[in-house]
TrEMBL record:
Domain Cytidyltransferase-like residue range list: 18-222
Protein name as it appears in the record: Nicotinamide-nucleotide adenylyltransferase
KW Cell division (keyword) present: no
Higher taxonomy: Eukaryota, Metazoa, Ecdysozoa, Arthropoda, Hexapoda
Gene name in the database record: Dvir\GJ24340
Biological or metabolic pathway of the protein: Cofactor biosynthesis; NAD(+) biosynthesis; NAD(+) from nicotinamide D-ribonucleotide: step 1/1; Cofactor biosynthesis; NAD(+) biosynthesis; deamido-NAD(+) from nicotinate D-ribonucleotide: step 1/1
Source organism (scientific name): Drosophila virilis
Length: 359
């Protein structure tokens, strides 16, 4: 019987999942997205999930609270250390400019296709990118790369001027979306109200997260900025990295001169692309994850402060006026200038997109 199940699993279509976002900092919920999605496909017996990829956005995305990519990559590496199948792709952060998500998907999909179809000796040469799942050449059938996201990212498709319609269409038509529910979002209704999404809804998998957790990066940054505890909201290794680097304007009683110098060592290791460090304790184990896919182009200033005006992390949908109509996703601030804050962010994104279009 178990032989039969194994054989059946072997024949399932293969998919890989890629999550694009800021990850500033990565939270356990970012990783839960992958676990929830993999369970969904495998328990239903519809697909084999061969790998998970986290692709942090480029520094020039310019979102408020975006720590330098060298730090975001380092934190992601720490966060996925105990995962056997989720990996960092630092391709996006090493591009000369911000990349649209459609191009990020295309790049990784092309790489997967080429890798499966042209057996070479890259393994021996150590040329493979760190995000590439292991064992892909055991089979020759294609791997379909799907965009994994929370429902709020899906709903950001309707922010006027933010995403290009042709990109949305290419993403859903050529790749597919795996959407995890998030409090305050209604992805079923959102899809119904969008003609493009409805057209390709067979390529959209909506998954209910029955154990929701509204931790978000912005909430974590806010607590850190106030000097409040975020322990148990973040992986301990990620938290100790933040404290040590003084990220997010952290007002921490834990940063001391005794620990400060360590981050210099850490960063040197990261810059050296040292793949072979073997360390055992928590602090040292940060070096284990220092394998960048490609050499860093530039050194980033080490101490980063990104104090933010406090804001609630609730995402509300405003201006929803009818099927296919634009929906604005606004992050509402505690009292006064919350919508200004969100509008500023939206403006920053629009400017970024306009710049990219001009290039
Ligand atoms: N608590 C959560 N539940 C479901 N999805 C989430 C959750 N937190 C983040 N995500 C998803 O993770 C992906 C990457 O998130 P990203 O880092 O850009 O956002 P975030 O954690 O919401 O950060 P911020 O608070 O700065 O907006 C997005 O698809 C987002 O929807
Ligand atoms: O491709 C686009 O047009 C596009 C427009 C807006 C946002 N994105 C991506 O969406 C991800 C989440 O962004 P955000 O601002 O919701 O945290 C991040 O990886 C961005 O690069 C992508």
């Amino acid at each position: 019987m178990s032989g039969f199940i194994e054989e059946k699993t072997c024949m399932l279509p293969r998919i890989a999942l890629i999550a694009c976002g800021c990850f500033s900092p990565p939270t356990p919920m970012h990783l839960r997205l992958f676990e929830i999605a993999r369970d969904y496909f495998e328990l239903r017996g519809t697909h084999k999930v061969v790998g998970g990829i986290i692709s942090p956005t480029h520094d020039s995305y310019g979102k408020k609270g975006l720590a330098p990519s060298i730090d975001r990559c380092a934190m992601i590496k720490l966060a996925v250390q105990t995962s056997t199948w989720i990996r960092l792709s630092d391709w996006e952060v090493h591009q000369p400019q911000w990349m649209r998500t459609q191009s990020v998907l295309q790049h990784h999909q092309n790489y997967l296709n080429n890798y499966i179809n042209s057996p070479g000796d890259e393994e021996q040469n150590g040329l493979l990118p760190g995000w590439l799942p292991l064992g892909l050449r055991e089979r020759r059938d294609p791997i379909s790369l799907k965009l994994l996201c929370g429902a709020d990212l899906l709903e950001s498709f309707a922010v006027p001027g933010l995403w290009a319609n042709e990109d949305i269409e290419e993403i859903v038509a050529n790749h597919g979306l795996v959407v995890i529910s998030r409090c305050g979002s209604n992805p079923e209704k959102f899809i119904f109200e969008s003609d493009i999404l409805t057209k390709y809804q067979r390529n959209i998998t909506l998954i209910t997260n029955w154990v929701p957790n509204e931790v978000s990066s912005s909430l974590v940054r806010r607590l850190l900025n106030r000097g409040e505890s975020v322990k148990y909201l973040l992986d301990d290794l990620v938290l100790s990295y933040i404290n040590r680097q003084g990220l997010y304007n952290v007002k921490s009683k834990y940063i001391t001169d005794a620990v400060r110098p360590n981050h210099l060592n850490f960063n040197r290791v990261y810059m050296d692309n040292n793949k072979n460090s073997v360390k055992l304790d928590n602090d040292q184990s940060e070096q284990l994850m220092d394998e960048s896919d490609s050499p860093l182009r530039q050194q980033t200033t080490r101490v980063f402060c990104c104090g933010e005006t406090p804001r609630a992390n609730t995402k509300l949908l405003l201006n929803r006026s009818g099927p296919g109509q634009a929906v604005q996703v606004i992050t509402v601030q505690a009292k006064d200038n919350g919508s200004n804050d969100a509008l500023e962010q939206t403006q920053a994104k629009k400017q970024k997109i306009a710049q990219v279009q001009q290039v």
